[in-house]
Amino acid sequence: MPDDTPVKAPSRIQLRNRRRILDAALDVFAEHGYRGATLDQIAEAAGLSKPNILYYFAGKEEIHVTLLNQLMETWLDPLVEMDAGGEPLDEILAYVQRKLDMARDLPRESRLFANEILQGAPRMAPHLKADLKPLFDEKCHVIQRWIDAGKLAPIDPRHLIFAIWATTQHYADFGAQIRVLLDTDQPAPGADPFLRTLFTNLLAPTVR
Q1: How far apart are CA 90 and CA 39, in angstroms?
Q2: Burial 30-60, CB ≥16 within 10 A → b, else e
Q3: pLDDT 10s digit of each residue in the chain, 208 long?
Q4: What are the extents of the domains in the chain?
Q5: Fold match, 8-57 / 64-203
Q6: How far apart are CA 40 and CA 120, in angstroms?
Q7: End-to-end CA distance of the chain, in Å?
Q8: By the 8 A CB rule, do 118 and 135 touch?
């Protein structure tokens, strides 16, 4: 017979501890990558014992997968917001700005994602295929329609999106280098006008 015993909702303390563990793990994974991170490091960062960590999660991989699952929707949102009915150049520049804002506001999440991809996406591959790939194809088709209509310069939409990712996420993934080279603690200083000018010049249609 099926077990009809109601599942007890987690208490406020349990929810708080899960958030505490995940936030600490985000720091550890962002700094050390999946392979370099350990449960001992996560426990120390969370201020909890290792057995306490294992009460909430089966192990390091479950914590990592939970973080990646939470991240994916956030990661896709800036591209989802690109409006096929909007003004093409404005939509592209707004996407660049959203990605740059994300690099500023979510640097740990950016490094978590980058580390996973650099390792061959062993845990995120299903999301890339099921979620990112259809969205990427859809927005490439939108950009291509804008190009075909003469509203943007003729470029490859796929590599345009790659270039936007590279130029915006760089400020999060290589933040330590940026701070040394620019002698500042500010994230992405001066990047907004530079990237706006860069992509405006790249995408402005040629007047015939």
Answers
A1: 45
A2: beebbeebebebbbebbebeeeebeebbeeb
A3: 555 555 566 688 888 999 999 999 999 999 898 999 999 999 999 999 999 999 999 999 999 999 998 888 889 999 999 999 999 999 999 999 999 999 999 999 999 999 889 889 888 888 899 999 999 999 999 999 999 999 999 999 999 999 999 999 999 999 889 999 999 888 888 999 999 999 999 999 875 5
A4: 8-57, 64-203
A5: no
A6: 25
A7: 76
A8: no
Contact at 8 Å (CB) between 157 and 147? yes
| Rounded-to-integer distance, Cα 64 and Cα 103, Å | 20
Backbone CA torsion sign across 197, 202, 205, 208: positive
Q: What's the pLDDT at 162?
A: 98
What is the residue type of 15? L
CATH number for the domain running over 64-203: 1.10.357.10
Domain 8-57, classified CATH 1.10.10.60, yes or no: yes
